[in-house]
Design goal:
Elements: H1 6-14, E1 18-20, E2 30-32, E3 36-39, H2 49-56, E4 61-64, H3 68-76, H4 89-100, E5 104-111, E6 114-124, E7 127-135, H5 140-154, E8 159-163, H6 167-170, E9 175-178, H7 179-189, H8 206-214
Parallel strand pairs: 7-8
Antiparallel strand pairs: 1-2, 3-8, 3-9, 4-5, 5-6, 6-7
Helix pairs in contact: 2-8, 5-8
Length: about 220
Amino acid sequence: MTELTPALLLRAYAAGIFPMADHVKDEDLFWVDPDWRGILPLDHFHIPRSLAKVVRHDRFEVTIDRDFAGVIAACAASAPGRRSTWISHRIRALYIALHERGQAHSVETRLGGRLVGGLYGVRLGAAFFGESMFSRETDASKVALVHLVARLKAGGFRLLDTQFVTGHLMRFGALEIPREHYRKLLDAALLPPTGDFLALPQGLPGAAVIQALTQTS
């Protein structure tokens, strides 16, 4: 069996597939290549008015890549209605290794210094592959998503892959597209120029983040 390394994982993303596990303690992984793929079009991102107000008021402190391991651990933790997770120990180790290579990033939201929400994903070319998010306070993960989309737009990204579509993501404009269409978007996003995840400085006030969202690419 071929050892799954960070380099091989990136090759898999470039081919349009991603790994999952059956449960948190499972050492075996399987590759997923859905017939219908979830994406969140960056130029048609919808932010509800009430959430925009939360972002503008800077209720949460938002940081980038300050605690990647903490975010992925929180995403993998059990929660009400979810006793287990597909984010196994092996997957966590692989994505932490990707983060150390600069190919995986996290967005964290804090309240009173406490990590209360966030998300993480993989960067490749001008594509960002959203992996998972968590929330321990109302709107914490939603604010992280808003900051992520603003960062991707400012950095010239052309594809935000959500893997699947949930009712939560549909509120922001996520949609499902056939695998063939997704592959074309992915191939285009892997061509130069490469997206710049650090195009926006850290610590921007929420009003500036909202402004970055409204600017055309």
